[in-house]
Each structure stands twice: as structure tokens, then as C-alpha cells.
Design a protein that fits this description.
The complex is a heterodimer of chains A (527) and B (327). Chain A is α+β, with helices and mostly antiparallel strands and 527 residues long. Chain A is built from 15 helices and 19 strands. The chains are: A alpha+beta (527), B mainly alpha (327). Chains A and B meet through helix 6 and helix 12 of A and helix 2, helix 3, helix 7 and helix 12 of B.
Amino acid sequence: MRKLLLAAALAGSLGAGWAEARTVRWAAAGDPNTMDPHSQNLGTVTMVLQQIYDALISRTQDLGLAPGLATRWEQQEPNRWRFWLRAGVRFHEGQPFTADDVVFSIGRAQQPTSNYGIFVDTIERAVAVEPPVVDIITRVPDPILPNKIASLYIMSRSWAEQHNATRPQDTRNRQEMHTVRATNGTGAFRLQTREPDVRTVLVRNNDWWGWSEPESRESNITEIVYRPISSDATRIAALLSGEVDFVLDPPLQDLNRLRQAQGIRVLEGPEVRTIFLAMDVHRDRLLYSDVTDRNPLKDLRVRRALYHAIDIQAIHRTTMRGQSVVTGTFFPPQVNGYSREEDVRLPYDPARARALLAEAGFPNGFGITLDCPNNRYINDEQICQAIVAMWARVGVRAQLNAMPLGPFFQKIQREDTSIYLLGWGVPTLDALYSFQSLLRTRDGGPGNGIWNYGRYSNPRMDELIVRMQTQSGEARMEAIREALRIYREDVPHIPLHHQMIPWAMRANFQIPHMANNQPYFRWARMN
Amino acid sequence: MFAFIISRILQALPVLFAVALISFAMFAYVGDPVAIMLGQDFTEAQRDQLIRDLGLDQPFWVQFATFLGNAVQGEFGLSYRLSRPVAELIAERAPATLELAFTAAALALAVGVPMGVYTGLHRNSWLSRLFLTFSLIGVSLPTFLIGILLILVFAVWLGWLPSFGRGETVQIGGWSTGLLTVSGLKALILPAITLGLFQLTLIMRLVRAEMLEVLRTDYIKFARARGLPNRVVHFGHALKNTLVPVITIVGLQLGAIIAFAIVTETVFQWPGMGLLFIQSVGAADIPVMGAYLLLIAVVFVTINLIVDLLYYAVDPRLRIGRGQGGH
């Protein structure tokens, strides 16, 4: 019997175009908090889940859109998108994939305990029209719905109901939910072992619909073993000693050594994350400044002076060791709506900065506290140290307040800050998300200005954001361009750079570098 | 004896209460669990709902009383970070930490005591000097550096031992052990050395000093005068009398090894309670931190009690003193 099974397995594997089992062992600093597909929207969670779960639309290697569980889609009316579903797909535990699972998954992501709300925020309801067709009705016209739907994982309704997991998490109940450690997707790999903080083992799903696609036909990965290693030095030692094949987040200071190491390859690429300074432009007096009669940051000249004083090339060269893309705007080129013409910095010009400060009534500068995380972004604290030194040269006496991400985010979310460093990723890969969260007036509307802790407010900007939400085509691009122009003129932020993310791997392992910092093992190969 | 144990347990209660209170008060400063749980996108309503669900809108004393009431029943709630019961998480990690801690302690004793005796007896031999030099390294190098050096030499250069993790484990009831597999034993070597090295050198130096002290006493001279063989004098009389301070130190250090395995566990990605604690601090996971700190307090109190009882066994004078109601 066993021999028969073995022979069958062997025949199956030969038929699929790969000859032997290939295991890839990989590591990063953090472990996924949960295996639930609609609970925590974090890179450490999705880096595992997107191997297991499919969305209606999948991403291409340059983050474009490609058919996923839906083979095509169309905006048939301003408020209605139609999706044609792929036939013959089954979940890992055997349930057939149906339109009802799509309706269920959207509803599940809309629950208040889901962190995936932004991807379904405009959806009024989803309707299974006939077995292979789903209509999504939106409350307002949503031109970028496909971009968002590409991040919404589809799970099986019957499986979720069977395991009493129809909600993403339950903070009131003291019971562990089934979905915290179990999965049932339609994706390229299925979960075999899940030991939180120790190891997560995935095995190839030979029935996956996508193995015949040109990009994944060459992949020979049959097993993926993920083990978190939080200590930087140990993670690199494990790579050098051959205990792991691939490290997602090698520390910057080790890159030079890794590049020279025998049998190790470093892949470098941009990340969809922009680092900038945001500031209090709302209060009449700053909370943390020695100017007591007014708020200097409300004065455009002061904001421009702080901008002119920053020698971004020095930060790029020294602090970031060349691993950053200097920018004059707040999202990178991979994001829909990016405009090369509007990506222009105010030049580094300390003399001009001093003149502007004097003009604004601060010939001797002023004092202010810069809040900065010290373990969230690449070299975050060092960037802030460099900026403090650069401002000192034009007379601005900044005090650096660096802290771990927990207290840092708590502080800025209470708006208990005068100026702070923030890094912003764009999961929808569309400009609207950045504009709406960071620059829209905080009026309590869902998603409006929820990360606008400096309370920037500009009626024209708000108008343009509404146009981005409802219009499509050239009119929408025009709105984005104008908003970017206002961003440059108004200086609500001081943009710094887009982060670069290096990946390190053994030379016999190949995987395309992705700007969303997610490995796609369906495209990987082990030689 | 029984009355003694009861009185020590009663003394322990205020200690545990104080630990609970202080750690609970500190949690207000580790960060906002709500902000971490909500992620990047949320509405005010979602935020308020979560704060209510977690009971964080209650005044401090109410929250503390709820925590204590639940803790007494062994109920520590659900981890914010992992959405799993805290007691279960800690029970899962405890075997890894305990195996590591006891291996490290056994290593420290098995190597440290003979080295201490040897250096005490042969004060001027070159080997003693070598041991003493080596012990300086053990005392002065910080744990994480020792760990990284060992990884560099034995994992990266020589490729003999794994640089991280626990290897294959075998599940026996609720206990996962790495002691029964080759990869598990190999994985244990470097972390146990790292964790035990400081204790080893400490024990060695302590035993040496005590030996030197005891060997000068009259009863040793008398034993020699009676013509007892060296082996009996050294190990039967001298070593036994050096053990009281050694037991105290080893006992207290065992608590320290368990509690402060954090650094070693982080360096070697050892899946024990210390690593769990560090990760919980990063995520402001208050239920896990509270339970862990209480547990460590219980460990210290228990070990202290055992050490006190061991004194009785080793030092007859204490027994007599207690029997006469003295002190």
C-alpha cells in the first residue's frame, strides 16, 4: 500500500514538472501573530498567509494586477463591479470554491475586529449573481476597488462556520479561535505545521490553479519552513552556516560582509514605504517648543526653512549607506498616481533656511522636540540624529526624543507631539490611501485623516481627495496631480526618502524581489 | 519544620502581591496595546469598542483587582499578541526554559565544583592559573557576546552545532523535550554553555575561596594529624563544609538563570518563556507580561524556601538551634 502511494506521489510529481522534493528554509525577525486571514494586516502575517490564501485578483511581479480567483472583472456601473470566478477551484480541505465564499469573506473583513477594513470600506454588499459571477455594490463609485480586492483573502464559508470562526477575532471571549492556528485556503501552499514563534511549515498544493502560469511553471519548491530568529546576529549566522536559505530582513550593517561572503547573494530593491517628518500645524502654541506666543510651524516659511536645512544626500550616503531613494513626495513610483514632475525636493540650502527663519521672526532659531521611533524603520533613530545636527547648523535647537515603537505610536496618536518621523506604506498601491489617511481633515469620517496627527487641513485638498474617491480615468489623475502640487507648495510634511529593502539568500536559491516586501514562493526556485 | 514552611509561605504572599502591583503599574508605560492591535487603519468607534472589550476603560484599581481575582484562579486571559490563552502559552514554553536552565546549572556545578576544589588544593599549579584566567573571561564577558562568539566559532566556522532553535523535540504528555533527540541535544550545548558560564566561574571561585579558608582550620589539621588519607580530608571534611555558601549561591542563581535566560534565549532563538516575555514587551502584551512576572516571583520564593530547607540538611548546627527555640 505504502509503495503504491509512493509510486503515485512520484508519478504525480513528475507530471507536475519537478522531480524531487525541494525545501526552502527561511527566516525573518518576527513571527506571524495569527493565521487568520482577516485579523491582523501586518507584513509578518501576510508574508505567510499570501502563500496559503488567494484573493480574487493577484499581484504580478511588478505589483500590477493579474487574474486570481476571478478570471476577469469589470466596472459595469459606477457603483457596481462584476467579477467572473475561476471554475474548478477547491480549498485545501476539499470544499469547492463558490461565489458565496466571496460574499462571506467580504462580510468577514467588514467586521469591526478586522484590520482589513480599508480594503472593503466602500463596499455596501456583495451579491452572488449566478454561481460563477459576483457583483460588488459600492456605496460610492470606487475606481480602485480591484487594487483593494487584491489584498482580500478568500476563505470558505462552510469551513469558517463549522469551526465557529465567522468573525476574525474575538477580544471579549477568552477562547482561542480555530483560525489562530489553522488555515484552509485555495493557494499554492497549504499549512502543515504551525508552532507559534518556533516554526511554520507549508507544503506545495499540487492542485493549485496557478502552477501552469508562465511565472510559476519553473518553481520547484515543495516545502517551505519558516523559523523566526529575532536576534540580527544569529539570523545572519544561520544564513552563513547554511541553516537557512533565505533571510527577508538582513540588518544594514551586515550587508557589506554578506555581499563578500562565499555563496551568499544580496538582492536589493525599493520598498513601498516613504519616510518623512510630519508636524503640528494646528495648535496655536506648540506643546514642545520654547516659542510660547505662537506656533512657528504654522508659518510656511519656517516649514520651508526646516526642509531647506536638511542635507538629504548626506543622509542617503552616510546614515542609509546608499540604501534609500531620495524623494520630494510621500509615496513611491510603484503607487498608482505617482508623478515624476511633482517628485522634486526643496534644495539643500542652509543660507536660504536661515534667511527664511529670520524673515519669519526667528533670526536666532527656536527650540523644538523631535519625536522619533527607534525600532520601527530602517535606521530611524540615526536619521533623526542627523536631522537634529543639520537643523542646529541653521539655529534650530531640536531635542531628540527617540523611543520604541509602542510608546512612540501611543504618543503621536494622542497628538502629543510637535514634530515626528513617520514611515508610510501603501498596501492598496493607490495614492488615495495616502492622501486620505495623512492629509484629509480629521472630520470623523471613516478613514479621514486617521494618521493626520499634525491636523493639516486644506479645503482644496479635501475636495481633491473626494474627487479621487469618486472619479476615474484622466479626471482622477488630474486630481491627484493637483493634490501633489499642493503637497509641494504647502509643505505639510518634510519628505525624506523611500526605504530600500535588501533580501539575503544562499546563491542556489532564486526568488524575485518584491517592493511590498513579501516573498512569493510560487515564483521561487532552488537549484 | 512544618510551621517553618507555613510561615515562609505566608511571608511570600505580600511579596507576590507587591510584584503584581508594581508590574501592573509599570504596564501603563510599556505602550498602548490597543494601538498595536488596531494596526494602521481603524475608526474611532473600533478603537473605543476594543478598549471596552479589553476592560482598559476601567480605573486602575478595578483592572488590578480583576487581574488578581483571575490570577488566583489561574486564569490569565488571552494574549493580545497571539490571541491564545496565556496559561497555555506559558505552559508550552516552560519546558524549553527549564531544560535549558537545569542543564546550565548542572553544567556549572559539574565543572565548577571540581575546578574550584582543584584550584583550592593546588594553588600554584599552571592549570590553576589557567582556570583562574578563564574564570575572569566568564565573569567579565556579557552573555550575548559569549553567545555570539560561540555561534561564530561552532556554527559558522566549524559547522558542528546549530546556531539557533531547539532542534527536534519529542512530546511526552504536556512536556516537549529536546533531550531525547540528537539534534535536540546538539542544539542545547551552546545555549547551556552561554547561560551557565557565569555561574560556573562564580561557583569555581567561591569553592576555591571556601576551600582555602577551610583548609586552614584546626579540624583539618587534626584530621591530617590522625593520618586520614588526603581524599577523605579533602572531600569528606573540607568540601562538605564549603557547601553551605555554595548551596545558597547555586539556589539563588538557579532562580536567576530561569528568570534571566531572556538574553540567552533571544540570542539563540530558544523558544522558552524569556523569549516569549521579550516579544510580549515589544507588543505591550500585558496579560503575558503580568503572568510571567508573577511566575518568576513564585519561582524565586520557592527556590528560597528550598535553599533554607537544604541548610537544615547540610548544617547540623541550624537543626539544634531551631530545636532549642534559639536564635
